[in-house]
Structure formats: structure tokens, C-alpha cells
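Hi Y.,

Following your request, here is the sequence exactly as I used it, all 317 residues.
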Amino acid sequence: MTYTVVMLVLSLALLVYGADRLVDGSAAIARRAGINEFIIGLTIIGFGTSCPELVVSLTGALEGISDVAVGNVVGSNIFNTLLILGLTAVVMPISVTRANMKVDIPVCIAVSLLLALMGLKKTLFGIGSDSISAVEGVVFLVLFAAYLFYCFKSDEARVEVAGHTELTLPRALLYTVIGLLFLIVGGKCFVDRSVELARSVGVSEKYIAITLLAGGTSLPELVTSIVAVIKGRGQLALGNILGSNVFNILLILGLSSVAAPLSLENMNIADLAVMTAGVLIIWAGAALSGGRRIGRLTGAMLLLCEAGYMIHLTLTL
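Below is the corresponding structure, written out as C-alpha cells. Let me know if you'd prefer a different format.
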């Protein structure tokens, strides 16, 4: 028990340090390369902080444990939108742009709805099958490639909000690589120890995946987003969360289902509804502010929804 606690503390230290390096390095690269910070958060950081989810879900698919593969992604997206963006907005309101309101947040909502439509029976149009096949996985991957292409193609129209940086390009690259490495190693260590504790208590694989595994693999996003907003880089934080959510569904579930068809029999409409509702709350909250920011009130609402969902999961064990 003592060893597990010590390893959990060390893994959190790695996450904090890694996030700090990653934010500074990636922001410097963005300015020097003329790329908008939101795009850096949406792509490079979004992918980097989603690496733990990729490892966990792909491993679960290959080992025939669909609850782990799917529950990890659904839980991570819920954790990202409700807890991470909620907590980040409470710490400091996050600025949003016109492109965020018209494209980025709606795309995140659409991708969440797509998973529900394709993955669950008795949804709208009756096209769900309680599974994600290899063919559907390929569709996810094609959509993911198209979204990345659109993001970089539309980058010139986005508003740059980054501050000046004095990091040299080699140092910025080094910071980014070290940051990603520490986030991945720290996240994996935290997940391993958390699962070890959970299994000793005897809870289900779905519960482990949608709570401890999802929370553990989302720690990089949590720490990175809070560090980013404290450093005045709210667009990077928002891009990180939205990017991670899209990556989780289209890339991670796409790859996992191509490797082995995924069953969603133990998922229910409530899980996917909460995942989608979180992004809808963000969109509505930003709209009420005139499309300028995600404020503290919206953040508090997200945190309350996360608490309610965790209570629901615990009561339905």
C-alpha cells in the first residue's frame, strides 16, 4: 500500500512537470512556426495527452476487453468536458473565438452523437448495433483525417492570442518532447496503480474504465489545461480538451475497432448522453456570454454535472 501511494505521488509530480514543459514548448513552437495556439492544442498537445487513452483502449481491444477500450474513451471525454474544463474555467475563464463557436465545439458535439448513433441500438434512425465494427472504425479514421486537414487548412483565419516567448526553437522542441514523455510515463504509472487498487476492492471492469482508468489517462489533459490557463493560454487549453475528445472517439476507437470489433453492450444511452451534454453546456455557456468566454458559472455547472454522474455510477454498481 505504501509503495502504491508513493508511486501515485511521483506520477503526479511527473505530470505537473511534464505539463509545464509541454505548454511552454508548444506555445513557443506555435509562434515561431506561425501556427495558431488553438491548433497546436487541438492537434499536437491533443494527440500527446491522448496517448495514455490510446495505449489503454488499444490494449483492451486486442485483449478482448471492450469495456476497458470503450469505457476508457467515454469516461475520458466526460472527465475532459465536465471536470477538466469545468475546473479550468473556475480557476480562470477561458476565452473563445468565432471559429470555436461555429466549428470546433459543434464538431466535438457531432462526433459524440456519431458514436451514440453508430454504437448503440434503438438510437435515432435505428442504425446502432451495440458495437463498432472494423468498417465503422475505418469511417472514424477517414473522418479524423478529414478533420485534421480542415484544421490546418483553416488555421490562417483563426485569431492568434499567444503572448511573446523568448525560447529558442531547439529548446522549445526539447521542452515539448520532454513534456509529452513525462505526461505519458506519469499517466501510465498512475493508471497502473489505480487499477491495482480498484481490482483489490472488486469493482467491475466498466466502472474501473469509466472512472479510474478514464480519470488517470485524462490527468495529462487536466494538468496541461490548468497550467495553460494560469499562464494565460486559454485557447491552448480549450484546443487540448476539444482535440482530445475528437482524438479519443475518431482516432482511438477507430484504431481499436479496426484491431478488434468493439462491443458496447455494457454502455448505455445515459453514459453517451452525459458525454455529449457536457459539450452542449460549454457551447451554451459561451453563447450566453456573447461568444466571448467560458465563464466560472459555466465551469461550476460542469463540475456539478460531473459530481452527479459519479454519484449515479456509484449507486448503479
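The two ends are 25 Å apart (CA to CA).

Thanks again,
Q.
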